[in-house]
Amino acid sequence: MAIVGRTRFLKEFPAALHEGSAAVFIGAGVSMAAGYPSWASLLREIGDELGINSSDIHDLAALAQWHIRESGGATGVRNVIKHEIGKDRKVPETLETLARLPLRHIWTTNYDRLTERAFVAVNRPIDVVSGAKDLSLRATPGAARLYKMHGSVDRLDDIVISTDDYELYRSRRGAFSTLLQAHLSSMSMLFVGLSLTDPNIRHVLSLIRESFTDAPPEHFALLRPPRKDDFASNKEYRARAAQHRLWAKDLSRYGLLAVEIDDYDEVPALLREVERRVAALRVWVSGSWPLDIPDPHTASLYRFSENVGRLIGTSGRDLVSGSGMLVGPAAIAGFIESLREGGGWDVDRRLIVRAFPQPLAGDSADKARWTALRTELARLAGVVVFVGGGKMTGGLITPADGVMEEYALAKEAGAFLLPIGATGGAAGRIADELMGSAIASSGPDAQRPKDEELQILANSAADLEQLTSLIADILKRLAETD
User: Are 209 and 311 in the same domain?
Assistant: First the structure.
């Protein structure tokens, strides 16, 4: 994989996702990975009826057009698509990961339902826009939008397949091109599984080229260079490899940076790394403390939690919270205060709260629901700061069971575990468990602070500023890890 393209992609695209300015374009390669046929394979039967080998035809839209003319209608072509694309195949891991990313806009030229099913599997709402008139419909609050610019297998009477459909695209479905151009102008877009030879895509890219002749917006395309085993002869391989190198460089005219991969099997792992880096920008402050203990430590714990929340806000990260007793509200207060200094306009995007329902007098807590909420918080956050975590047992403060459960869930989810042992309770117990453990403390797979850092964070004599400064240093180091 090209190092420069990979490094920039893993730095810039996760940042765009975090800021809400990222989009994805899903091409035919993703559907083929799920077992759907290529265009040439899909139209093989159509070509056979015409006495033409579809593999020998470069303009497959023309092949569909010829069949429609010869047969007197598009029914035959549509039946082939219904039979081959209408089947539900296993959703590829690439789409499973994309469905978990904070994407709001997804584009595709594919007809299948793979993307919709990937979103349904994680119980995430998605609005499907497959016809030009659908673009005028009001978006569902909180839902991602899937723009199927060539139509969908669910609406075979309104798909793009023939030469006529392509030539009349601007008059019939031109709103898609206009909106795609707007997204390409204002967002960072990732192209996955796309050959970039689609005439409509090339038209929109040319419009971007006209609008931004010197400095077009930057986008990324995951590309696999040709390999020797793809071809029957070394001569053909060398020719295609040379063509690929020139084509990849030429993409820069459209603001596209080629991110080369050795094999398509690498794409899921690469997207999981993107997911990890986006999650690292979300910090969960886990902890609690009894409110009816009027001692200096309780007041100090509140001030420290406020400082942690403020630090998360000023560092550009999002705050994740279950709003537990004392610690959660204090962290939220500090976080909101830091954002208000800049106007506070993005607090609705950057504050992620899942408040735990508290039982009324005489009722029992809904433990299953609490575990479900904790599991969701662990999935959302890439870093978990443990502060306090105590409960009253026989007149003594003991580690809170809930915070220990959150520790186990965060550990299982692969989050970076950052216990402030000096605050006592569960945080102290977690710090003891991590000290000297086999869990990585450095490198890209780090999941805990270094032992010397854990010792400082567990020092009850350390002042609040020293502890907060060390947390800031650790968060900065995590952001710089490649």
Answer: no
Q: What is the pTM of this model?
A: 0.86
pLDDT in tens, 104-154: 999 999 999 999 999 999 999 999 999 999 999 999 988 999 999 999 999
Residues 399 and 296 reside in one and the same domain: yes
Query: SS3 for 179-195, per residue?
Result: HHHHHHHHCEEEEECCC
DSSP-assigned states of every residue in 284-316 = EEE----TT--SHHHHHHHHHHHHHHHHHHHTT
Q: Which residues contact 477 (CB under 8 A, 6 or more apart)?
A: none
Contact partners, residue 101, CB within 8 Å, separation at least 6 = 17, 271, 274, 275, 278
Give the span between the Cα atoms of 464 and 325, in whole angstroms.
20
Domain final residue, candidates 277, 306, 334: 277
Residues 137, 152 within the same domain: yes
| Cβ pair 5, 87 in contact under 8 A | no
> Minimal CA–CA distance to 447: which of 480, 418, 423, 409?
418
CB-based contacts of 102, cutoff 8 Å, min separation 6: 17, 18, 20, 278
Verify that 68 and 109 share a domain, yes or no: no
Q: How open is the CA angle 205-209-212, to the nearest 5 degrees?
A: 130
3-state class (DSSP) for residue 431: helix
Do 68 and 147 fall within a single domain? no
Same domain? 245 vs 391: no
| Residue where a domain stops, chosen among 233, 256, 277 | 277
Give the structural domain span for 197: 3-36+90-277
